[in-house]
Amino acid sequence: MNRSRGRFATTLLALLLGWLVAYPLLLVALESVQGPGGFTLEWFARFVREPREWQALWATLWTSVVSVLLAGVLGIPLAFLFERFDFPGRRLLGALVALPVVLPPLVGVIAFLFLYGETGFVGRIVQAALGLAEPAWRLEGAWAILLVHAYSLYVYFSLFTRAGLARLDPAAIEAAHSLGAGRWRTLTRVTLPLLLPSLRGAALLSFMTALASFSAPYIFGGGFRVMTTQIVFTRLNGEYGMAMAQTVVLSLLALTGLWLASDRGVETAGSGKGVAPSAVPIRHRGLRVLATALGWGLAILLLLPHATLVLLSFVPVGTWTIETFPPAYTVANYIALATDPGRLRPLGNSLWMATLATVVALALAVAAGLLTVRRPRAGAALIERLLAVPWLVPGTVFAVALATAFSVHQPLLGRVVLVGTLWILPMAYVIRNLPITSRAVLAGFRGLDPALDEAAASLGAGRGRRLVRVTLPLLRPALAAGATLAFVTALGDFVTSIILYTYDTRPLSLEILSSLRQGDVGIASAYGVFLMLLSGLVFALGSERKAVTR
Amino acid sequence: MSDYLEIAGLTRRFSAHAGVFELSLSLAAGRTLALLGPSGSGKTTTLRLLGGFETPDAGAIRVDGADVVPLRPEARRFGMVFQHYALFPHLDVGQNVAFGLESRGVHRAAAAPRVTEALALVDLAGFERRPVAGLSGGQQQRVALARALAPEPRVLLLDEPLSNLDPALRERTRRELRALIRRVGITTVIVTHEQEDAFDLGDVIAVLRDGRLEQLGTPEALYQAPATAFVAGFIGRGSWLQGRVARLDDATAEVLIGDARWTLPAAPMRRHVPGVAVGTMLRVLVRPEALRFAPAGTAGLAGEVTDRRFAGAYAFFQVRLPGGDQVEVSAAPTAAAPGDRVALVPAPPSDAELIACFPGEGR
After folding, report:
1. Cα separation values, A303 from A98, A171, A309, A512, Å
2. Which of A167, A179, A191 is the best residue to mutate to test the B interface, defined by the most B CB atoms within 10 Å of its own CB?
3. What is the ipTM of this complex?
4. How much is the pTM?
C-alpha cells in the first residue's frame, strides 16, 4: 500500500474507533463530575455516604467471585471427564455440555424461573410431593443469581480446560511418569501448571461476565441489588448524575479485576508438537457405570431449561394456574408469532439489527486486520486496544455511555442525537461485538502465511483481487467464528437494549419481558424457543464452515 | 540368559500389519541397542512399550531377570528422552532436572548437588536457573538427557534423539551422545530411522519391518551378511538386478545376469533361497564396491556410464544396462566418464557378501 495512504487509513480507523468506543466512556467520566455549577464531586460523595451503594458494590463483587468458583468447580472436572476418559455416550455428552451457550441470558433466566422458581415445575413437584401449602422455596436473591451464573459460566471453564488439555503436550505427561511421578504428582506439578493460562482465561472471562450480568439480577434480584441493576433503577428514578457515578465505579471494578487477573508471569507455551492423548476407556465396571450415570444425569440437568421453554411455548394464555404441569397445549403462540404484525415486528427488528451489527463489526475488524497485522504502523497498537475496550467494561456501562453521548446535538464535538432513533441499537450492538469479532479476525490474520499474499502478488494479482481471492477465503474460519458469536450475542441482547431501545426498534428480549409482564408465558417462551433454535443453527453453521476449510 | 535387558515375545497389535509382533531380543548391561526401521516399522511402539506408555498384548520385558510389564511407567526407573524433549515449560532447567529426583523422594536439598552433577555431565553447568524456553535445540536436548539421567535410571530410552537438529549440529551431537553413553555406562535403547545414527550409536542394531524383527546384529554383520532382502536393501547402498541360477554345486553357484555369468559362493545363497536349484529366479543386490570396470568388450555385464557423482577418494557411477536397469558402481574418480561404454565384472571376493541373492523375480 502507498505509505501515506496507509497512514491516512490507519488514522481514520483509529479516529472512528475512538469516537465509537472511547469517546462515550470519556463523556460519562466527565458528566459524573459535572454539576449544574461546573465541576463537582457531589455524586461520588453521595455514593460513598450511601450504605445502599456499598451493598450493591459488595454484592457485585462477591457474587462474581463465587460465580467464578462455582463455574470452575463444575467445569474443570467435567472437562477432564470428557477429555480424558471414555465411557458410553461421551461424544454426545461432550457436545451437550456447550448447550447453555444457545440460551441468551434473558431466555435462560426465564427458563430457570419456570423450572426452579416457586411456580416452576421443580418447585411445584416438590410442593405437591411434600403436601406443602406454600412453595418450598423462593427463587430470589443471591443464590438464584449464583445458580444461573454457575449454569451459564461453567461452559467457559469446561471449554477452556478442554482446549488446554487438547493442546497439552502428551509427552510432558509421559515424561513426568517416566521420571517417577505418580498420577497425583503429575496432575499437580505438570498438568495443572500447564493448564494455568487456560484456567486464568476462563476465570477472567467468567468474572467479567458475572460482573456485567444483568438479566439474572434484574429478574431474580428482588431487593438484592448489584451494580448493573442499581444503575438501571437509578436512571429510571431520573437520578442521572448518580447513575454516572455508579457507572464509573462499576467500570473501575471491572478494570481492577482485569488488572489483577492479567498474566504478568512468563509465557509458558509448550512445544505443542505432540498428538492429543486419546481418551482412556474406564476399565473398572463400577466407575464406568458411575461416570455414565453422572454424564447422563448432567445432560438432563443441562437440557431441562431448554425443555421447559419448549413445553411452555405450547401453553395457551391464562390456562396454567395451580396444576403441576400445564393442562392444555396449543400451537397458537407460534401462529401468533408468525402472523400477528405486532408480534412479528420484534423478530424482524432483532434480525436486521443483529445482521447489520455483525456485518459492520466484521468490516471494521477486517479493516483493522489489513491495516495493522501485515505491517506494524504507528497507531496499530492503539487500534487493537480500542477494539478490546468494549470488553473491559460491562454492557450496562456502555449503554449508559451511548445514551449519554448521543442524546445531544453538538456536531462539532462529535455528538449527534441518535437516542430514540433506529440507529442507536445497531450501533450499540456493533460496539459490543467489536472485541469478539476482532479477536477472532485478527487471530486469523496473524495465522495467515504472508508468503501466500506475496505469491499472489508475484502472480500479478492486485490488491483487491488478493483480498477477495486469497485473504478472505483463508480467513473464512476466523470470519465465521467472529460472526457467529457476534450475531448470537446481538440477537439475544438484553442488557444494552433495555437502556437504549425505542418502541419501534424493540428487540426480542424486550418483547419477551413485556409478554412476561402481561402474564403471557406461552408467547414469551415461543420467542425464547425461536432465539434458542436460531442461535443453535448459527453456531452449527459457523462450526461447519470451520470444518470444511480444514 | 544373563543379558540385562530382555524382550521376549513382545506383541502389541494395532491392526493386522501395524504394531509390534512377537519381538524377542536381548541386550547386555551397558550396551546400546539401536532400533532401526522405516516409519511404521514399530520401533517407536517398541520404545513406548519399554517405557510403559503402551501395554503389550503379550510378551515380557525383563530387566535383570524381573518382568517390568506389570509396572507403571513411574515405577520402572527407565529414563526417557522424548523426540521433542518434552521439557516442562513452566519449570526452569534446574527444576526440570530435579523433577525425577524429587518424584523418587529425594529431598530438595539432597537433589541440588545431583542436579549440578547431571548438568555438568551434559556440559550445561550453571544453567540451573535458566528458563527452558530460551534454550537452543541442542541445549534443550542436553537438558532432557540430564533430566532423564539424574535419577540414575536402569535403562535409558532415546526417541529419535537427533531428528530435531540441523545437519551440522547433528554430527557433533551424535559424537557427544556416544561419548556420554559410554561414560555413564548405561544400558541404552535408541530409536532412529537413520542408518548412520544407528551405526554410530548402536553396539547392536535391530532392524524392524512391519512390527517384526528382520535381523539383530552388529553394524558389520548387518552390512556384510544381511539376513533378508529387506535388510540388504535398507542397510547401505546397492542396486537390485534380476538373475537366474545357471549352475550350482556344493561350493559355488553361477548366476546369469543379462549376458554375464558371475560365480558366487553357494552357501549364503542356500541360506537365503530355500530350495535353490538350477533355473531359480533371483533378486540380486549389488553393492557399489562389488563391481569394477573392465574395458568394453571384456566378458562381463555390458553397459553405458550415464552419470558420475564425485565423493572425494572415489566416485559413484551410474551404469545403464541394455535392458534399462541401472547399476551403481564405486570406483576411482578417473576410472570412467559419462558416455563411456564399459563392462562390469565382480571385484575380487571379500568376507562381505557384496553380491547377495534373494528369492523372487524382478529387480
Report:
1. 11, 37, 10, 21
2. A179
3. 0.77
4. 0.80
